[in-house]
Design goal:
By secondary structure, the chain is an all-alpha fold. The protein is built from 17 helices and no strands.
């Protein structure tokens, strides 16, 4: 059923509600999505469950972080474009500020023995997080031999070549559209006046134009005003990940982290893992890892230069999500009901498993086999943490705190 429905005219929730959600969002995308459902649908009755599910499906269809897009869509449903902006910004802003501040502190004090020991203890826990995410994605997305082939293709291609992430996404989408399509389009066009349809189309085009204009203006700033490296590099890497990454935050983290280490030299392998630890620890979407990368990349340009790098990374990460959600929100049911779209995204989802697999291999090698021989302590910690994550008996934040305490007590 094609839905062009406008947002429901209800009282606009205050900004503090969305800020509260952002501050409460620990434990990764799955935990964030559950928190949003509990707070918005069950506790405050601001949206019904069907609206929530449509928003979640919509978020999965789009590139970028699902939790941010879900919150933005629900904000739109509740109180239109202003509600979407308040919801998205409120959900992201607390974690973004904390991430930039923590990164500045680490870049200045990271040589302290206690800090180094804490991160050494957290690193195998981060390996466990990524490995557990890989198994979960593989179980959900690799339901056919063709899907497995796409995942292996993505893993091998990412391992052998650099800078091919967008190409992998395009190829996987094309093969998915060709081979996984079921031909079952089940939408119907609701009767709407031409005037109503034209008004919605104008609004969507205006939103796309505004978002694109902001992105172009910031890109021009990076090219003509700021130093070429790192600010233009931040634009290129983060924008590519934001607009070409399907399957949640982990594929974006894989791409941004790999580019930051191998192509641009902003981070070491150890710093890349430390950033993942911060992103898992600080409230907010995992994609705030990009703020860590942007801040570290610009740390050689003084305090305010580093802050600018982190701020640009945040904007380039979430501006595409805000723009796409608000522009396409009136067409949610119609987009999801087209079999060609579903098939293309099934191909992308399979390839995402291979992309995450590359990240998992890099982290395992860096943390568990750092030299010529295995680090059995890190291997044991990673296995225990992975078992705890899979069983779900220990909250993710508690695992990270336990890893940090273990590092301070035994690795310092």
């Amino acid at each position: 059923m094609m839905s062009h429905a406008a947002p429901d005219p209800v009282t606009r929730p205050p900004l503090w509600l969305w800020l509260k959600l952002g501050l409460m969002s620990f434990g990764g995308p799955a935990a964030h999505i559950s928190l949003i459902q509990n707070e918005i649908c069950e506790r405050r009755k601001l949206a019904d469950y069907d609206t929530y599910l449509r928003g979640l499906n919509f978020a999965v269809l789009l590139p970028g972080p699902e939790a941010v897009q879900l919150v933005t869509y629900l904000g739109w449903r509740i109180s239109g474009i202003p509600g979407a902006l308040l919801a998205g910004a409120g959900f992201v802003l607390p974690g973004a500020l904390l991430m930039i501040a923590a990164t500045l502190w680490i870049s200045a004090k990271g040589d302290l023995p206690m800090v180094q020991a804490a991160f050494a203890g957290v690193q195998p826990v981060i390996v466990a997080f990524v490995t557990a995410a890989l198994f979960k994605l593989a179980r959900s997305n690799l339901k056919s031999k063709f899907g497995l082939m796409l995942a292996v293709f993505a893993l091998i291609t990412m391992t052998m070549f650099s800078g091919v992430f967008p190409l992998i996404i395009l190829i996987s989408a094309a093969f998915g559209a060709l081979l996984l399509i079921d031909g079952n389009d089940y939408f119907e066009l609701n009767p709407h006046t031409e005037e109503s349809q034209a008004s919605r189309k104008r609004t969507s085009l205006a939103v796309l134009a505004t978002g694109s204009g902001i992105w172009l203006a910031l890109s021009a700033l990076c090219i003509w005003v700021l130093p070429f490296n790192p600010y233009l590099g931040i634009d290129i890497v983060i924008s590519t990940a934001a607009m070409a990454t399907f399957g949640g935050a982990y594929p974006a983290v894989a791409f941004v982290g790999e580019q930051a280490v191998t192509s641009w030299g902003w981070l070491s392998r150890s710093e890349m893992i430390d950033g993942l630890a911060l992103a898992e620890t600080i409230p907010g979407p995992l994609s705030l890892y990009n703020a860590f990368v942007g801040t570290m990349a610009a740390s050689g340009h003084g305090l305010w230069g580093a802050v600018l790098g982190g701020a640009l990374a945040v904007v380039f990460t979430f501006l595409p999500s805000f723009t796409m959600v608000i522009a396409f929100a009136p067409y949610v049911d119609w987009l999801y009901s087209i079999s060609l779209v579903r098939a293309a995204l099934a191909g992308v989802s399979a390839a995402v498993v291979g992309i995450i697999g590359k990240l998992a291999l890099v982290l395992i090698y860096a943390v568990c086999i750092p030299g010529t021989s295995p680090n059995w302590v890190n291997i044991a910690v990673a296995l225990v943490a992975c078992a705890a994550i899979i069983t779900g008996r220990i909250p993710p934040l508690l695992l990270i705190v336990a890893g940090a305490v273990f590092g301070i007590l035994f690795l310092g």
